[in-house]
Automatic annotation (TrEMBL):
This is Inosine/uridine-preferring nucleoside hydrolase. One of its GO terms (cellular component) is cytosol. Keywords: Glycosidase, Hydrolase. PROSITE patterns: IUNH (PS01247). GO terms for molecular function: purine nucleosidase activity; uridine nucleosidase activity. The lineage of its organism: Bacteria, Pseudomonadati, Pseudomonadota, Alphaproteobacteria, Acetobacterales. The keyword Hydrolase applies.
């Protein structure tokens, strides 16, 4: 199996991404690191453990990462979308254990140094703060990363937290800027893709009817975040973001995209946190990401349902 570390701010959609990874024998989850994002760090950490509890995976450790972005500013959260705990809509009990450490950077550096160079994929489901810290504080370990798969950014679809910025970039643009210029292979899964993967009523029902507890929890959580997103986007369902990263690792054939240059706008009167995507190659800036553009959404939901069904 391919070794991954999941860096995350659960968040209902982060939770579903983690469950998809845990249900997939093609992936070996070497650990989970947490970051402040959708909700403050104590909640994202507790939520990561609650999800591991649901999947009965006491063998996977959670390490606590950054509680704030690189540059000090008023905190941005997504509690208006995810509810105050980040996992509203689920009835998961309190976490069974404490995190393994409060040193996500130490865990990441150790994991990367212990294993063969180029053997660990970092899946980033929130702001890039932990990855940027790793790059600055442990560059030798960072350079051993095989690749990064990141849910973040937007181009054709516009922003979801400001008119031009996607949430994970907006929370910590300086961190994203560092990582995108770090020279590590990186796949971006932007809103352009995730806004295609709508949680229609039929898809939610399918999870509810899988007959296991994980299916119930997934249906409950996605039904909750949908309430906000439906009003916002007015479609036949809400976008589903983070699980697309894991689906890309499992089934790249479900997605299309291309290599291109992406820059991060760290200043800007209106555009702080925007991803400047040179999708049409109108500059000679060398490509630094593989930018996903479209998804086979039925294929994606078939995969997700089939995998969630394997869980307790
Ligand atoms: C991203 O922001 C969060 O709300 C989601 O968990 C996802 O990672 C979407 O913009
Ligand atoms: Ca997230």
């Amino acid at each position: 199996p391919r070794t991954i570390v999941i860096d995350t701010d659960p968040g209902q959609d982060d939770a579903v991404a983690i469950l998809l990874a845990l249900a997939s024998p093609e992936l070996d989850v070497a650990g989970i690191t947490t970051v402040a994002g959708n909700v403050p760090l104590p909640h994202t950490t507790a939520n990561a453990i609650r999800i591991l509890d649901l999947a009965e995976r006491a063998d996977i450790a959670v390490h606590v990462g950054a509680d704030r972005p690189l540059v000090a500013r008023a905190p941005v959260t997504g509690a208006h979308v995810h509810g105050p705990t980040g996992l509203d809509g689920s009835d998961l009990p309190a976490p069974s254990r404490a995190p393994a450490s409060t040193d996500a950077l130490g865990f990441l550096a150790r994991t990367l140094r212990e294993r063969d160079p180029g053997s660990v994929t970092l899946v980033v489901l929130g702001p890039m703060t932990n990855s940027a810290n790793l790059f600055t504080r442990a560059p030798d370990a960072f350079s051993r990363i095989r690749d990064i798969v990141w849910m973040g950014g937007a181009c054709f679809e516009g922003g979801n937290i400001t008119p031009s910025a996607e949430f994970n970039v907006y929370v910590d643009p300086e961190a994203a800027d560092i990582v995108l210029r770090a020279g590590i292979p990186l796949t971006m899964v932007p809103l352009d893709v995730t806004h295609q993967c709508l949680t229609t009523p039929a898809r939610l029902r399918r999870f509810a009817e899988l007959g296991n507890r994980a299916g119930q929890v997934v249906a409950g959580m996605l039904g909750f975040s949908e309430r906000f997103d439906l009003a916002k986007y007015g479609g036949s369902g809400a976008p589903l973001h983070d699980p697309c990263t894991i689906a890309w690792l499992l089934r790249p054939d479900l997605f299309t995209g291309r290599e291109c240059h992406v820059g991060i706008e760290c200043a800007g009167t209106f555009t702080r946190g925007a991803t400047c995507v040179d999708y049409w190659h109108v500059t000679d800036r060398p490509p630094n990401v593989f930018y996903l553009r479209n998804a086979d959404t039925d294929g994606f939901y078939d995969l997700l349902a089939e995998r969630i069904a394997r869980l307790p």
